[in-house]
Input
Amino acid sequence: MKRKGAIILIFGCVFLALILIENFWGDRIYKKRFVKFNNSSINGRVGGMDIDKGFANIFVGNQSYKFVPVSINKSTDFLLFAEKGDSIFKPAKADTLKLIHHGKTYLYKFERF
Output
């Protein structure tokens, strides 16, 4: 019985260590993605888009940008709303992204990491 308890304790410690490592590396990855997105000037048409762990992954020209959009007017979910061919604009270090969808302009903020 003592051996079984020791094995459970060891597996618990390993599991906890893996969670801590994932949080540490995950935070670094999210910050790196945000810095790239924030420092980029984006001006073009959406060439494609997918969702990756809650991030919008958009392709504009030959670049890929990952970010977590937040609608300013709360009526349109970027991840479900944006389409290939929509125009997208964001100056470098701006806090707002502009999406032009079917001739209408929608504004989005994004989570900072």
Summary: The mean pLDDT is 84.
